[in-house]
Write a structure and sequence with these properties.
This protein has about 140 residues and is mainly α. Helix content is about 65%, strand content about 0%. Helix 2 packs antiparallel against helix 3. The radius of gyration is 36 Å and the shape is rod-shaped. The termini are far apart.
């Protein structure tokens, strides 16, 4: 019984629910603006329908699914989570594979030994080499 006042506070009026739904759906006459701001006869008609149906007791989900069935998924301003889930999983998998590849490549690069230092030539050998090169030019 103590939870009843809390539930009443959380209850959404049909008017608020209609406004939230209108913000999530595009006007099907041009697909450019959401129903809450679009000023066409079709958008006006759909807004009236949404309010009438919610006031008569239908749920937001029922009204939304009916409008999606009539106008297609394109009516949603933001694609439904069910539509985006495979794309999100694919992007996450790609990011994971790319991360593993970068880490593996970095570790492989880290294991490559540094090139050996150039050989040290003794001073006498350097003079003999220089002289031999001069003789060849000569």
């Amino acid at each position: 019984m103590l939870h009843l006042p809390l539930l009443l506070l959380l209850a959404v009026t049909p008017d608020e629910a209609a406004t939230e739904l209108e913000e999530r759906l595009l006007a099907p006459c041009c697909w450019n603006q959401t129903l809450d701001i679009h000023a066409s006869p079709l958008a006006s008609s759909i807004r009236s329908e949404i309010r009438r149906r919610l006031e008569s007791g239908e749920t937001v989900a029922q009204v939304e699914s009916d409008l999606v069935a009539r106008h297609g998924e394109r009516i949603r301003a933001v694609p439904h989570a069910g539509f985006m889930r495979p794309i999100g999983i694919g992007l996450l998998a790609f990011a994971g594979i790319a991360f593993v590849g970068v880490v593996a490549f970095g570790r492989r690069r880290a294991k490559v030994p540094a090139p050996p230092p150039p050989p040290v030539i003794a001073a006498d050998d350097r003079k003999a080499l220089d002289q031999a090169l001069l003789d060849l030019d000569g």
